Amino acid sequence: DVKVTQSSRYLVKRTGEKVFLECVQDMDHENMFWYRQDPGLGLRLIYFSYDVKMKEKGDIPEGYSVSREKKERFSLILESASTNQTSMYLCASSLKGASYGYTFGSGTRLTVV
Amino acid sequence: QKEVEQNSGPLSVPEGAIASLNCTYSDRVSQSFFWYRQYSGKSPELIMSIYSNGDKEDGRFTAQLNKASQYVSLLIRDSQPSDSATYLCAVRGRGTGGFKTIFGAGTRLFVKA
Questions:
Q1: For residue range B18-27, what is the model confidence (pLDDT) as tens digits?
Q2: Would the N or C end of chain B have less CB density within 10 A of its end CB?
Q3: Nearest CB to B96; choose among A42, A56, A104
Q4: How far, in Å, CA of B60 to CA of B81, rounded?
């Protein structure tokens, strides 16, 4: 069964900490994405990558960075966690091309205290 | 105007009825259209994709696309309580890195036994 695996299901971090969220896919997908999902706001794109070492800002990149050193792995980094970054974080991947939908990971619920 | 609009619901239908979920989008050059199902506390799961005007059927699900009206819908026949979830409409069109997907905020569906 093909998968997008997120390293943690739940995380609790302190304000100011540097936080790493890891995502690994085994489908040889070119595109990978990081979203956050908040009640009433839906899915908001943070960053995406369409190739190794390539990254593009999404709609809400402030306070985040990403790394894609290998095709299968896409990491989201919160440089200095803040309480307004408490959210559900979803990683997704897809093949290149407009006709392909996304496969999502199971999500990481991050709480910043 | 939001780029992808859905009625937030909740939409409540009795078991066995047809559930009709609707979505409008603003970008006329959008190419691909998707429906995702998201159970409470879970990540979105791709259930349907459609690219051409008309209907596309898959089991109990039918996706309908009308590009002239910028309208896409999902019909669920013989609705079951297990269909109770939030349904996200997603539209893929212009954007960098292999086309950007815009998600609607979702419609909550309740199927009453």
A1: 999 999 998 8
A2: N
A3: A56
A4: 14
Do A35 and A44 meet the contact criterion of CB atoms below 8 Å apart? yes
The contacts of residue A103 (CB under 8 Å, 6+ apart) are A2, A3, A4, A25, A27, A29, A92, A93, A94, B46
For the stretch A36-83, pLDDT in tens is 999 888 899 999 999 998 999 999 999 999 999 999 999 999 999 999
Nearest CA-CA distance, residue B35 and chain A, Å: 9
Give the separation between CA B33 and CA B92, rounded to whole angstroms.
6
Q: Which two tokens stand for residue B13?
A: 């239908």
Look at the block and give the residue holding tokens 């990683």: A91
How far apart are the C-alpha atoms of B63 and B73, rounded to whole Å?
Answer: 6
- B46: which chain A residues are within 8 Å (Cβ-Cβ)? 101-103
Residue A3 in tokens: 């998968």
